[in-house]
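Hello again,

I reread your note about wanting to compare the complex against the isolated chains. To keep things tidy I'm splitting this into two emails, and this first one only covers the full assembly. Below are the input lines as submitted, including protein chains and any nucleic acid or small-molecule components. They are followed by the predicted structure of everything together. The single-chain runs will come separately.
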Amino acid sequence: MSHMGYVRLMTLDREQVLRSAAALLTRKSTATMDEVAKAAGIGRATLHRHFAGRDALVKALENLGLQEFEAALDAARLDEDTSEEGLRRLIAAVEPSAGLMSFLVNENQLFEGDEVNEGWNRADARVSAFFRRGQERGEFRIDLTPAWLTEALYGLVGTGAWSIQAGRVAAQDFQYMIVELLLGGARRSVEQ
Amino acid sequence: MSHMGYVRLMTLDREQVLRSAAALLTRKSTATMDEVAKAAGIGRATLHRHFAGRDALVKALENLGLQEFEAALDAARLDEDTSEEGLRRLIAAVEPSAGLMSFLVNENQLFEGDEVNEGWNRADARVSAFFRRGQERGEFRIDLTPAWLTEALYGLVGTGAWSIQAGRVAAQDFQYMIVELLLGGARRSVEQ
DNA sequence: CCCATGTGAGACATCTTCGTCTCATCGAAG
DNA sequence: CTTCGATGAGACGAAGATGTCTCACATGGG
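Full-complex prediction:
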């Protein structure tokens, strides 16, 4: 099948390689191309055939992560229902991609002034707009800016993914921990 | 003055170098020894005279960050007053070191299974114990584990430092953003 | 059966960074 | 002024990673 895989946007092999690369780079962001190849169960030469170089690999990971995050944004249906339920759905939808997102968030910090993948600006805008809508509806407090809430969301998702990875918190608590902290904070409120 | 500087635990020069190194590495964690030296306004050779190698430099940064964080823990007097006020004091005390801490938190993720600086375990224990006490006093909710609250604290401090660095949030809001989100979350409560 | 494609292994030159070293210079103490 | 210590600049080899290339092999289609 010389045309195998072209029925999809991304070859199955290629995606599997990206998956394992994401898993490895999430743990060790300085991993070698050779380590990435070994982790994917392929040779370094084959890795280079799929991705021109390390930059191309990282860029592909960016696109994959962005694609998954936007899919999560879609799946969360942030407009429907209450903002709280929307946030719960978003965190739930983003959980499978949390590790990859954590890597990308840290990775983006390296691009000092460089242009960031335009897609991330779009995603940021969607999250930020979600928080702003929640504020306008009176569901979110207005003394925390949407920009900060957006950053905090990314930060907590990354922290959560890493804490689980390090074994400091239980994997099953991922969604609950993040949503509850993000929504209600640590203070014991009268409502409980 | 052949003995200059030895009146202190750390030579003034040495500390200044560490400060600028921390500032640079916070922004670009992969910075070269040469870049670190340039940023400190000294030659690469001199940098190597102060710190045997990159490992030694990072270790020195770890010690500096740990020292500052423990000083912040002391200054916060976490036992006195309410837990809420203690947390406010801690975040306020930690703000000047936020960038360095952000770097170290990310850096620690690289030490896969390696032993972590024992001092960090002590610091973690103090923070974790603070949250546990708050729970026992009925000031913090008990459905979020102290371990997670500790991780979230680190994560938000790092996210805050980075968000300011990136210009996405105002520097003056650092303490308020973090404390308010950590304590009360994003949900608009009846108390307001 | 034969061929084409994709692959793994490895060789290879190149590049970057690192750590060390030398040497000329500068400044302060004596 | 002289001397000693610290510094900056630069050269140097070592080590590691990268990107390219070749070659043998396996598999699947014709």
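For quick reference: Residues 2, 42-46, 49 of chain B lie near DNA strand D (CB under 10 Å from a C1').

B.
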